[in-house]
Structure to design on (544 residues):
């Protein structure tokens, strides 16, 4: 105990001596500085080596440093590239989206007015064949309803301010957009599941094959009375399938990057994600408008496939002849002779 | 009317963070949000500089341009403000802002954003000046009381200047002239498309 105390006292002495030395040195240094300043002030330029804003921006297109607050992401001081993103969001995207969607609608209207609905040439046979089972239809409509809500709420973010806001006013538009945002965020999950299920359950029928080339060469038989052969899915449907799978995958991935800010992305990542998300989304909407058209008023007998799940045998013969042959081979020759058109149940 | 701006004289900033603290206290800024922060560039190296940064109240503000619900407005003093009643918390202003000013309180599930919060230049919001509602949503409205933003008022080295753009630019120019150096008005080119010749 005694020796420790002695050591402690020794340390105290040493410390106070050290303090004295430091004080003396400090005073001496200060004296030097004070006398030296007038002489050296002209030569010292503290900014000679200092960081320069423009130089930093040119090097990295952003300026980043250290912050002492917990939010480390606020260490990015400046990133002017938001300007390019703004240009994309306010100008480029509106052009892309406007042309894609209005162009598609215009093309469909012109097509409908000139060519009209693709009719069942042989009329209805009155006998049906199962095309999509209950689970397939459930997945389709799950994805479809989510898609429609997502599309409307998404288009609202891009086009609502110039188109809808002036009509309904700030408060109503904000309220509507707020609900749109919630719907957009939450329905993304069932939509993603739907896309995933679509990918898995229909992949077998959607691998491109030689038949598709022939089908595409004959323009899918859209014009005239041509009916190129096709298996369960023709080349046009395969295109829709891959648009849904790839487009859906892209919007889901980019959308989640935006929904979970800073999980693996920085600000540039989120700007890129928004660009990918919005371009894919408007093209997706345009493609789905065509899909909705051909599945409803565009083709006689097509809607039933996703409605009741059963299509007329004559519809199957005209649009999916090879598929019908496969089905017949599986179930036996009981559908050998379709009824003539006159026998269709009116 | 004045054209209000911020100017941080980086050669004077000592990174004391008084501006950050003053701001948080004055406006009772929610936990996790910093309307102002001090960023140190080249920390510990020769030529290190600290810059206090918040919303710069840009000319032709990008946040206002990209907002899907048009919730931003510019006051007669050219201060960029927004309405939290209209804001839907989409995050677009944050993508567009060059200074990382907009922040969102984390509400609900995943990273979902609440109403955006940012520096108001101590000028409140669309509610009646000095009202309780205004204070709760946006913090104090010092401008309406004839006072300047507290961050600049409290700056220990008078590095951070707030006030009419021409006047603070003049002060800065005089400083640069007198001391013989200046690393420029950080952010001015991006925010106001102008630089202060020094």
């Amino acid at each position: 105990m005694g020796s420790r105390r002695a050591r402690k006292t020794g340390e105290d002495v040493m410390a106070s001596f050290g303090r004295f030395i430091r004080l003396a040195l400090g005073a001496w240094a200060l004296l030097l500085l004070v006398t030296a300043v007038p002489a050296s002030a002209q030569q010292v330029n503290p900014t000679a080596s200092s960081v320069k804003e423009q130089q930093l921006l040119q090097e990295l297109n952003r300026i980043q440093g250290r912050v002492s607050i917990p939010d480390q992401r606020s260490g990015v001081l400046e990133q002017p590239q938001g300007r390019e993103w703004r240009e994309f969001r306010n100008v480029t995207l509106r052009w892309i989206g406007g042309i894609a969607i209005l162009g598609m609608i215009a093309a469909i209207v012109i097509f409908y007015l000139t060519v009209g609905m693709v009719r069942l040439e042989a009329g209805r046979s009155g006998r049906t064949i199962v095309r999509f089972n209950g689970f397939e239809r459930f997945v389709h409509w799950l994805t479809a309803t989510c898609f429609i809500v997502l599309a409307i709420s998404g288009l609202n973010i891009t086009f609502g301010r110039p188109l809808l806001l002036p009509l309904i006013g700030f408060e109503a538009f904000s309220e509507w957009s707020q609900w749109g945002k919630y719907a957009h965020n939450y329905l993304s999950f069932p939509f993603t599941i739907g896309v995933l299920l679509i990918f898995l359950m229909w992949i077998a029928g959607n691998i491109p094959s030689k038949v598709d080339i022939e089908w595409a060469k004959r323009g899918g038989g859209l014009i005239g009375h041509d009916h190129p052969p096709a298996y369960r899915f023709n080349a046009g449907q395969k295109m829709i399938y891959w648009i849904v799978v790839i487009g859906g995958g892209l919007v889901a991935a980019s959308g989640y990057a935006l929904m979970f800010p800073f999980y693996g992305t920085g600000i540039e990542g989120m700007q890129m994600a928004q660009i990918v998300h919005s371009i894919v989304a408007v093209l997706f909407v345009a493609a789905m408008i065509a899909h909705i058209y051909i599945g409803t008023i565009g083709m006689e007998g097509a809607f039933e496939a996703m409605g009741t799940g059963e299509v007329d045998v004559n519809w199957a013969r005209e649009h999916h002849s090879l598929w019908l042959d496969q089905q017949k081979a599986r179930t036996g020759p009981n559908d050998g002779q379709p009824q003539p058109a006159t026998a269709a149940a009116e | 009317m004045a054209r209000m701006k911020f100017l941080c004289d980086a050669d004077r900033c000592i990174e004391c963070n008084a501006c950050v603290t003053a701001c948080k206290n004055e406006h009772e800024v929610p936990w996790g949000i910093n309307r102002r922060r001090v960023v140190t560039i080249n920390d510990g190296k020769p030529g290190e500089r600290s810059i206090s940064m918040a919303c710069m109240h840009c000319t032709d503000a990008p946040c206002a341009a990209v907002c899907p619900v048009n919730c931003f407005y510019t006051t007669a003093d050219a201060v960029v403000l927004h309405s939290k009643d209209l804001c839907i918390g989409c995050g677009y202003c944050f993508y567009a802002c060059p200074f990382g000013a907009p922040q969102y309180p984390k509400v609900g599930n995943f990273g979902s954003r609440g109403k955006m919060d940012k520096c108001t230049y101590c000028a409140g919001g669309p509610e009646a000046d000095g009202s309780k509602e205004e204070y709760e949503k946006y913090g104090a409205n010092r401008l309406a009381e004839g006072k300047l933003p507290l961050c600049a008022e409290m700056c220990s080295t008078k590095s951070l200047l707030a006030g009419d753009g021409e006047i603070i630019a003049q002060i800065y120019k005089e400083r640069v002239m007198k001391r013989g150096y200046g690393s420029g008005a950080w952010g001015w080119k991006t925010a106001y498309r102008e630089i202060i010749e020094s």
Summary: Residues 1 and 122 of chain B are 17 Å apart (CA to CA). Chain B has a mean pLDDT of 91. The helical segments of chain B are 18-27, 62-66, 92-96, 132-138, 150-154, 165-179, 188-192.
